[in-house]
Design a protein that fits this description.
The complex is a heterodimer.
Chain A: H1 2-31, H2 33-43, H3 48-55, H4 58-68, E1 74-79, E2 82-89, E3 97-102, H5 113-121, E4 125-129, H6 148-162, E5 167-173, H7 175-184, E6 192-198, H8 204-215, H9 220-234, H10 244-249, E7 255-260, H11 268-277, E8 282-287, H12 295-298, H13 300-315
Parallel strand pairs in A: 3-4, 3-5, 5-6, 6-7, 7-8
Antiparallel strand pairs in A: 1-2, 2-4
Chain B: H1 2-30, H2 32-42, H3 45-54, H4 57-68, E1 72-78, E2 82-89, E3 96-101, H5 112-120, E4 124-128, H6 147-161, E5 166-172, H7 174-183, E6 191-197, H8 203-215, H9 219-232, H10 243-246, E7 254-259, H11 267-276, E8 281-286, H12 294-297, H13 299-313
Classes of the chains: A alpha/beta, B alpha/beta.
């Protein structure tokens, strides 16, 4: 009798420790961007086809070269007693139009170059906030938009403070899109004219769920709370509470939704759910062949047309 | 014999429990990220007051000035292979300098109000990152104890580069305590005076106050366990950080400023500091309930008094 109790206790303790360790391990694998990027590069897991399509598209090569030649410098902004970092690219002449672009999970600023160049030539100033955990941010872990929202609102407030007549467009891809949605739920100033959400997910919880299930082939339902626990311990971001879709319901800013039809990370049904949730003026663009976050490469012309129509309606 | 075994086991369990709880209290007191989260969870009354500070037009003007100033980043070695980082904003006249020390959980942006005011008066501005904050490499704050070395590194740096300079030190809250600790040390003649805005008298007293009023924990044993954790982390010894005692050897005149109904650093601490200081002192009490908010409540009077004080020691 005594032995069985002891054995059960031992087993449950081992299971608990194992669960904790597994959560921590998966958390490091997903949220520690520098580690993940290093691993992907070392094991050559990159989707080469997609990389080629996106980075070697003749239309884009020029914009990537343009972006590399800029030599942007990091700048600090201060808001509500916090310090945020980001990059600013200003027009030579004074301009009231601003674009804030946010890249996606595991991405970098360079991936936003096609949009940045397009808008820069139209006379917009560009701001590129540092996403938490990515590139040269001081934080170690990515938070799937949970704290990036504060960075984004900080940047919006900074721009409005400097130029009260400014007109701001928000542009986000993937995790950036969800960050934009989260920010739309806050009380944004009226200077924010419209937002572009390129395949944003509805909630961080569901995204990690699909990620674990599709990419890692794991019983996601069982493990997810362990990952969430690690997230709360490490960065303080609660995946359950970070729900872009709920924030979007409160928004009054017009939004353009973009989605690739063959996306397996943020499937079409999620996209429709997000689209439905938005109560303000909205429009959508579905790129038939595109997978996650590369719609612009597959249907560049339609994309630009939509952007132009939004611009004509809300910015001018 | 069996009794001895159980006693040993109980002893080990007690020690382990003590270490763990000490570690937790230590994290809640000195890990800036955790403290921010804990304060957010507790929805402290303090928060309400800080909103008054952060939403004041004076603060907004200050941060816009700081963001647009041509701040250079300086990296200086200090102590044992540590690096002090900070912003240096040069003025046209390189003779007069102000070194601002920001508060606990703050950033250089919090000091921007003072920095802007004195920059317009012809002072060059230095705002170091206190240890554990912003771009500093260490993870934990030291409540002024290591920050005094950071401040000293910057004092020496400026004195070396601009030999006949005149420096005045300005500290807020934790920064004020760092300035007090520094005032008790041997300083180059270039340091003329110091302004300490709501600093605490000793580290232990401040922690006792925090534990009692905000964390609702008994001081014994938790504070002492946290002290052990601090030393295990290689951080400072709580008992050695005594700004009020350092002031007994102060070689520079000090102006003390404190809010009357301060809810974070009690008013009695101010009286103790004021009495223990041996060098020429002046004191100014602000009638406001906000910790370190004197400048926001009555800017003209605040700057009148500090300017008058500084005029006595720094030539125009």
């Amino acid at each position: 009798m005594k032995n069985t109790v002891k054995n059960i206790l031992k087993l449950s303790a081992a299971a608990g420790i194992g669960y904790y360790a597994l959560g921590e391990l998966l958390y490091q694998g997903i949220f520690n961007i520098r580690l993940t990027n290093g691993m992907v590069r070392a094991l050559k897991l990159e989707d080469k086809e997609m990389m080629r399509i996106f980075y070697e598209e003749p239309v884009f090569v020029k914009s990537f070269q343009w972006f590399d030649g800029l030599g942007l410098k990091d700048r600090a902004i201060y808001e509500n007693g916090k310090e945020y970092h980001g990059f600013f690219l200003r027009q030579n002449e004074k301009s009231h139009n601003w674009l804030i672009c946010l890249h996606g999970y595991r991405g970098d600023r360079r991936a936003e170059a096609p949009f940045a160049e397009y808008y820069y030539e139209k006379g917009y100033n560009i701001a590129m906030p540092c996403m938490t955990g990515h590139e040269d941010d001081k934080g170690k872990y990515c938070t799937m938009g949970c704290f990036d929202k504060d960075v984004l609102t900080g940047f919006i407030n900074h721009i409005v403070r400097e130029d009260p007549d400014s007109r701001i467009i928000l542009h986000g891809v993937s995790m950036g899109a969800s960050t934009v949605m989260l920010a739309l739920g806050e009380n944004l100033p009226e200077n924010v004219k419209f937002a572009v959400c390129d395949c944003g997910f509805d909630s961080s919880w569901d995204l990690i769920y699909t990620m674990l299930k599709e990419n890692y082939k794991l019983p996601a339902k069982l493990i997810l709370s362990a990952v969430n626990g690690a997230s709360i311990r490490r960065s303080g971001a609660d995946l359950r509470k970070s729900r872009p879709i709920d924030a979007l319901r409160r928004s009054k800013t017009p939004v353009l939704f973009v989605q690739g039809a063959k996306d397996n990370l943020v499937p079409l049904n999620v996209f429709y759910r997000v689209y439905e949730a938005c109560g303000a003026y909205k429009d959508m663009l579905i790129s038939e062949k595109a997978v996650h976050a590369v719609s612009v490469a597959f249907s560049y012309n339609e994309y630009i047309k939509k952007l132009e129509s939004f611009e004509n309606k809300f910015v001018k | 014999m069996i009794k001895l075994k159980t006693a040993v086991k109980a002893g080990i369990a007690l020690c382990a429990g003590g270490l763990v709880s000490g570690e937790i209290v230590y994290q809640c007191l000195l890990n800036v990220k955790t403290v921010n989260r804990v304060y957010g969870l507790m929805k402290l009354a303090q928060k309400q007051h800080t909103n008054i500070f952060y939403e004041s037009p004076l603060y907004k003007e200050g941060i816009s000035w700081l963001e647009n100033s041509q701040a250079e980043k300086a990296v200086l070695p200090y102590g044992k292979n540590k690096k002090a980082k900070g912003l240096v904003i040069k003025n046209t006249d390189r003779k007069k300098w102000i070194i601002c020390a920001h508060c606990f959980c703050g950033c250089p942006g919090d000091e921007s109000i003072y920095a802007k005011h004195y920059y317009e008066k012809g002072f060059g501005v230095v705002i170091p990152y206190m240890s554990g904050h912003g771009e500093d490499e260490s993870k934990y704050s030291s409540m002024g104890y290591c920050d005094r070395e950071i401040l000293k590194a910057f004092v020496l740096y400026i004195t070396e580069n601009y030999p006949d300079c005149e420096i005045f030190l300005h500290g807020m809250s934790m920064g004020a305590s760092a300035v007090m600790l520094l005032a008790g040390e041997k300083l180059p003649d270039s340091v003329k005076c110091a302004v300490c805005d709501s600093g605490y008298d000793t580290c232990l007293n401040e922690f006792k106050f925090l534990l009692k009023n905000y964390y609702h924990l008994p001081v014994f044993p938790f504070l002492y366990l946290a002290g052990i954790a601090s030393r295990l982390h290689g951080n400072f010894d709580f008992k050695k950080s005594e700004p009020a005692k350092a002031l007994e050897n102060a070689g520079i005149p000090v102006l003390f400023i404190h809010s009357e109904n301060d809810n974070f650093v009690p008013y009695e601490m101010f009286l103790r500091e004021y009495k223990s200081c041996k060098s020429p002192v002046e004191a100014y009490t602000v009638k406001c309930p906000l910790h370190g908010g004197g400048v926001v409540f009555n800017p003209s009077e605040y700057f009148q008094i500090t300017d008058d004080f500084i005029k006595k020691y720094i030539s125009e």
